[in-house]
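chain below, 120 aa
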Amino acid sequence: MNTVLVVEDGLADLELISSCLQQAGYRVVRAKNSEEAEEKLMQIQPDLIFLDVILPGKSGFEMCREIKSNPATNKIPIIFCSTKNSDVDKLWGNMLGGDAYLSKPINADELVVTVKQLIK
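prediction:
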């Protein structure tokens, strides 16, 4: 079973994303801030990271840059998810190494399709 690390500080979004992923057959590990995410990332080596852009502590963009610059984690696909959904935000996420960018509110079908495309 593939593992997805979901980094989201909004409880409603965290529940929705986790539920969608679990129903699609993924194991979900949750983190509510960047510090918690960094700890769990080193413990579990997830198959994919679902990353909010606006987080307590480091932003999702900062986390992505660190994850993609670390040889131990740089192959893990990252999906950004945010209410910040301008073309500039999406371009910035892509430039930092993000593999996909989903806008909130989350579309469950789009979420599952995107995850399946990135976890092969």
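The first strand starts at residue 3 and ends at 7. The beta strands are 3-7, 27-31, 48-52, 78-82, 100-103.
thats it, cya
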